[in-house]
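Structure ticket #2291
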Amino acid sequence: MVKVQIKKRGKYYQYTFEIAPQDGKRKWITKSGFKTKPEAEREGLKALNEYLETGHSFKPSEISYSDYLDYWMEEYCYINLKHRTIETYKYIIKNHLKPRLGMYRISQITTATIQEAINDIYVERGFAKSYMKSILKVIKSSFDYAAEIVNFIKYDPSIKVKVPKYDEPDGDPVHIFTKEEIDLIFNSVKNNHCVYYAFLTAYHTGLRISEVFGLTWEDIDLENKKIHVRRNIVKKNQAGGTKKRHISGNSTTVWYYGTCKTANSYRTIDIGDTLVAALKKYKEEQEIFKEMYGDMYMKHYKKIVENPYTKKPETKIVNAYAEIDVALPEAHLVFLKDNGIFEGTDSCKHAFKVIHYQLGIQGRFHDFRDTHATRLIEAGADIKAVSKRLGHSTVEFTYNIYVRVTTKMEEEIVNKFEEYLAA
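Resolution: structure written out below.
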C-alpha cells in the first residue's frame, strides 16, 4: 500500500510517495516548502489521492453533476465544439441543468431522475419541442462522455430519456421565398447597401450567413466568376466592454475568423453575371465612400491571438480609423456599412424586423440558402452539383434537409402521371 512519508528539510517539511516505475526504475513524487508537518501531511494525502484517481482531484463516483458539467465543458466542449454551440450549452447548463440536477452525485442519477427533470422543465416553462430536444441533447452528450469516455459511471442513464409528447407535429421553420416575396424583401433594403448586397449574395449562392459575412474581396474572383469559401465569421462577447461599438477596446462584440462548418464547406462555387455585375458595382461604391469619409473611415485588421480553451492560434478582427497606422495585415471584409464599420451577422437584425412586421413575411437569413437550393432543383439542376455547391457531405443530406417540396414540384408529379396515362 502506498504511503505518504514526511521529512524535515532544514526549516521546511516535504512529502514523498512512490508511484509506478518507469523504464524499470522506481519513481517518487516529492514536494517541499511546507512550514508545518500537518500541512505537509494534508497536502501529501491530497496529492496521493489525486494520483490514485489518475490525475483527478476528486473521486469520479462522488463528484456532483454540477461539478462534472464544469469538468465536461473544460475537457471536451471547449476543445471540440464551435463557439456558438458552447454558448448554447453554457446557457442550458446554468439555467436548466444545474438548478434541477446539479446537487446530485453523478453516480446517483437514474433514468427516472432525468426524465422527471425533463418533464418538469416542459410543464413549468412550456418550451417548444425543438428547444426541449436541445436541452436533452446536452444531458445525453454529457452522460455519454461520463460513461463511455472517462468511465465516471458504469452506464448511461440518459439513453432512454425522451422529451414529452407534443400534440402538434414538428414545425418546419424553413420558409421558401416566392419571387414576389424576394422582390418585396430586396426593395425594402435597397437603401442599406451592406444588407442588400449580402442578401443578394446569399440568394444567388446559397452561402450560410457566417460564410457570407466571412468573405473578403480576395475571396471573390469577379473576372473568373467564382467565390472561394475559406472561413466563417464568429461573434464572441468579451467581458468588461462598454455599450460603445466598433471602436477598438470599447466594444463588447468581437469578431473572429472561424473554421467552416465541415470539411466539405471549404469550396469554390461559380456565380452568374447578375451577381458579378452587382458586386462590381458594390465595390465601386465602397471606394467612393472610402474617399468620402477619409480619415474617419473604419478599417479592419487581422490579429493572431491564442484561443483560451484550445491554446491554438486564431484570427481576431480589430479595427481602427483610417488615420491610425496599424502594424497588422488588413482584412478587406466585403459587407460593411458606408463608413466602413463591420457589424457582421448583426447587420441583418433590423432588416428582418422590417421583413417580419411590416412586410408580413416570416423567414430567416438561412431561408435564402434553402430557396436557392430549391429553385435549382426545380430548374432541373443535378442534385450532386447542388449538394457540392451547398457544401454538404452527402446528396441524401441535401434532399432530406435543404430541398423542400414546393407547390410547383407537387403539381409536376401529378402532371407526369397524367402524361403517363395519356400515352
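Closing remark: The two ends are 89 Å apart (CA to CA).
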